[in-house]
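Re: beginner question about structure tokens

> Can someone show what the tokenized structure looks like for a real chain? I only ever see the sequence side.

Sure, here's an example I had lying around. Input first:
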Amino acid sequence: MSEVEQLENRIQHLSPEDLAKFRAWFFEFDARVWDQQIEADLKAGKLDGLIAEALAEYKAGKAREL
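And the corresponding structure tokens:
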């Protein structure tokens, strides 16, 4: 059994209270990992093209208020 399968099995057997705690922890953990990846991609210049495209569309009046 793989490590992921073992985790899935353990999660399936959590009490509702522990599952709620795990869900909250994982949500925060996943958000932190996502933020770190975005920051790394930004520093590496991987988002430069998208940023330039968005700014060009904004300057051309193709943006609207949310």
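Each token stands for a local structural state, so reading them left to right follows the chain. The helical segments are 3-12, 16-43, 48-59.
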